[in-house]
Amino acid sequence: MAETTYIQAITDAMREEMLRDPGVFILGEDIGVYGGAFKVTRGLIDEFGEERIMDTPISESAIIGVAVGAALVGMRPIAEIQFADFITVAFSQIVTNAATMHYRYGTPVPLVVRAPSGGGIHGGAFHSKNPEAWFVHQPGLKVVAPATARDAKGLLKAAVRDNNPVIYFENKYLYRRVKEDLDANEEVVVPLGKAATVRGGGDVSIITYGSMVHAAQQAAEIVCEQDQIETEIVDLRSLQPLDVEAILATVQKTSRVVITHEANLTGGIGGEVAALISEHAFESLDAPIKRVAALDTPTPYAPAMEEYFMPNAEKIVNAIRQVVRF
Amino acid sequence: MSRPEMEISPDIQIKLYTLMVKTRATEDRIIALYRQGRIVGGAYTGRGVEGTTVGAALALEPQDYLFPIHRDLGAHLAKGQSVLNILLQYLGRGNSLTRGKDSGIHVTDPALNIVGNVSHLGHMIPVAVGAAIGKRMQGEKVVSLNFIGEGGSNIGDFHEGLNFAAVQKAPFVLIIENNQYAYSTPTHKGYVCKYLSDRAAGYGIPGHHVDGTDALQVYAVVREAVERARSGDGPSLIECLSFRMVGHSAHDDAFYVDKNRMKEYEKKDPIARLEKKLFETALLTSAQAAAIKKEIDEEIENATETAINSPMPEPHWAAEGVYAE
C-alpha cells in the first residue's frame, strides 16, 4: 500500500488505461514536456511519446472537436481542458457534437473530458468555476466529480472504458490535500452512476459531491460533538446519471436533508436532487430541504470575499441545525 | 495549372457527369416532396454547386472519410450513398439511417465513412481533423475531407481546426464551397480578402482557388490534395467558387440575389458545362446522356415509392438511444 494523492490517482488511472488500451491517448495544452499546468500528465510523454501525449494549440474547441473525431473512428481520447473555466470555449463541441451523435445515428463517442474545477485557491472568476450543471442538463453526456483519491482513480478508469462522452470534473483544491492508501496492484474501477455513503447516521442526510464531501465531513463531526446529531453523508460521485435509489434511501432513513455543492445555487445539481426527493419521497420528509451552495455571483478574488462566497463546513453546520430543529 | 482535366480518365469524367445529374434530379424530387408537405423539415439544395460537391468527394477512396455539410447531397452520392437512404432520411422514416431522429442530409453512414453534419457551421472541421489523426494513429493511410461554405469559414472552428490540422500535419483537406451567399449575406459583408484560399498561407499550408463550376478542375485539384495528404505531407485548403442558383433553402425565394449575377452563372451551370465538354471530346453522345438521365429518373422514382411506403418511427423511439451501451 502506498499513500496516493488525488492528483497522483488521476495520473495513475490514465497511465494504467494507456498501458491497457493502445486506443487511449491524451490531448491538451502544455501536457507534454511541461506535464500540464497542474502536472497531472507529468512523465507520461517519456513513457508514451508525443503522439499519445499530444500537446495542442490554445484551441479548446478544436481539442474537443478533434477528440470527438478520433473517438468516432475508434480511439478513446482523454481531452484535458486546462481549467474547467475554459470549457466554455469548447461548450458547443461538447453539447452539439459529442452529446448528440449516438442519439442521432448510433455511433458511440467514447471520450473523456478532464476539467480541473473549483475555487478556494484565489483564482478569481476565470480559474475557479464549477460548471457541472451546464453539462448535466445536456442529454447524452455523463458527468462525474470525484471527492477521494480512490474515486478519482476509479471513476476516471470507468470513464475511459465507457462508450459515451464523460465530463470528469477533478477538484483542483483536492489535488494534493486529499490522499489515501491505494494498492498499486489493485484494479480500481468505480462504476458510473453509483453514489457512496461515506458516513452513516440517522438524524440528517447531507447529499453532496466533490470538495463539499470534505466540508460535509467536518460539519458532521462538529454537530456530532456539539449537538449529538448523527449525520449521514452521501457522496453522489456521478451527477449524470444520478443514483436516485441512493438519494431516496438516505431520505427515507433520516427524513431530513441538506444538499450542498461548491457550485453556485441557482440551476445547480441541488435543485434537481431536491426535485427528485419532492417527487418520490415527499412523505418521508420531516423538514424542508436546505441547500448550501456558493453565492449566485462570479467567483470573487480577494480571500475574504471568496470565503464569504463559498460554501463551507460552518454554513453546512448552520443548515443541519436548521433542518434538525424544524 | 495546365488543363488538369486532360489527365482525368473517361470513366471518371462520365461518373462526374452522372453524379451531378443524379444530384440535381434527386434535389428536384426533394423539393417536390417538400412542396407536397411530405418533407416536414427544411430542404437545402445545392443547385449550381454540384461541380464542387461531386468533384471533390469523387476524389476520395472508399477508406477515406467524408464530412459534408447541408448543401452537399452531391458529395453523399459521390461517396456511394443511395438516393433511397437520402429520401428515407428527408421523410423521417423509421428505417432511415438515423431512424427518423435527424433531418435533411444530416446522414451518417459508417459503412461508407460518411459523417453527417450538425447545423452549427464549422463544427465538423475539428471533428474531421480528429478522424484524420485517429486513423493515422491506427496506422492507416486515410484522408479526411470536409466542406465548409464561405459563410461558415468565418466561424472560430475554421481557424482552430485548420491550424490544429496544420500543426499535426493531419491528412485532411478542407473545401471552401464558396457559393457567394451565406443565407442572404453576400460575400462582401462576410470577408474582405480577395480569395479565402489565401488564408492557407496563415496556417503554412497550400491553398488553391478553383472554378467550382468546373467539376473536372475541382476533381483534379482535390485529388492532388488528397494524395498529398495521404502521403503524409499535411492538409490543404481549396476554395471552389460557384454560385448558389437557389435560395438558402426551399422556403427562401432568394429575392436578394443579384439577378445579373444569376444570369451570368446560369451560363456556367456545372452540368451543362461538363455535358458540352463531353460532347465535344466525344466521351458522351446525346443518346447516352438521355440513357443516363432515364436510368437516374427510374432510380429516383423507385426510391421515392419505397421511401413513401416505408414505416414512420415509433413515437417512443424518441426516448431511446441517448446513451451507448
Lateral arrangement of strands in the main beta sheet of chain A: 3-2-4-5-7-6-12
Assembly annotation: heterodimer
Total helical elements of chain A: 12
Total helical segments of chain B: 11
Helix-strand category of chain A: alpha/beta
Mean residue pLDDT of chain A: 97
End-to-end Cα distance of chain A, whole Å, is 45 Å
Helix proportion range of chain A: 25-40%
Radius of gyration of chain B: 19 Å
Question: Strand sequence of the main sheet of chain B, in spatial order?
Answer: 1-2-3-7-6
What are the segments of chain A in which pLDDT stays under 50 over at least 5 consecutive residues? none
Unreliable spans of chain B: none
Strand content of chain B: 5-15%
Q: SSE order of chain A, as H and E?
A: EHEHEHEHHEHEHEEEEHEEHEHEHH
Tell me the radius of gyration of chain A. Answer: 19 Å
- Name the structural class of chain B: alpha/beta
| CATH homologous superfamily caption of the largest domain in chain A | Thiamin diphosphate (ThDP)-binding fold, Pyr/PP domains
